[in-house]
Amino acid sequence: MATAKIFIVEDEFIIAKGLARKLENLDYEVVGIASSGNEALEQIEETSPDLVLMDIAIEGDMDGIETATKLHQDFNIPVIYLTAYGDDKTLERAEDSGCYGYILKPFKHKEVHAAIRMALKKHQTLQSL
After folding, report:
1. Which residues form the Response regulatory domain (predicted)?
2. What domains are there in the chain, each with its CATH number?
3. pLDDT grade, residue 2 (50/70/90)?
4. Residue of 55, 57, 35, 32 whose CA lies nearest to 45
5. Distance CA 3, CA 124 (A)
6. Looking only at Cα atoms, what is the longest distance across the chain?
7. DSSP state of 86
8. Peptide bond preceding 49 in cis form (omega within 30 of 0)
9. Over the stretch 63-106, which tens digit does the pLDDT of each residue have?
10. Closest of 106, 115, 129, 3 to residue 53, by C-alpha
11. Distance (Å, whole) CA 59 – CA 9
């Protein structure tokens, strides 16, 4: 399989850059980083990633779940949440957004790598049906 293109939506710059570096070390291509939903939607249209890693509490007038819902509807791109929020209300909203994974912070990079592989495979399988 070709190198997967990953887009990161995270408003904490240090976390985003650290994650990007780790993903690149795992042979993923990080095609962009955004700190808000609107910025992400603009860049994603231009970069066409294979998968988006999305924080839920991000800058701007849309949170990560609203942004992911829009991504799912407009671009059919799989989204994995990386978030500190594990409460039932947030989980229910995430379930309804069509996400492919939900990882609580602090996360291990191996968890993210495994979730990316599973999400990409699931998305590929669903597209071939």
Report:
1. 5-120
2. 5-127 (3.40.50.2300)
3. low
4. 32
5. 14
6. 39
7. -
8. no
9. 999 999 999 899 999 999 999 999 999 999 999 998 999 999 99
10. 115
11. 10
Q: pTM higher than 0.90, yes or no?
A: yes
Closest by CA to 115, choosing from 14, 1, 12, 26, is 26
Torsion of CA 65, 69, 70, 71, to 10 degrees: 100
Secondary structure class of 65 (helix, strand, coil):
helix
Q: What dihedral angle (degrees, nearest 10) is formed by the CA atoms of 129, 55, 67, 79?
A: -10
> Is the backbone of residue 9 left (phi > 0), alpha (psi -120 to 50) or beta?
beta
- For residue 1, what pLDDT is reported? 53
Q: Which residue in 12, 18, 46, 15 sits closest to 32, CA to CA?
A: 46
Torsion, Cα 105 111 112 115, to 10 degrees, reads -120
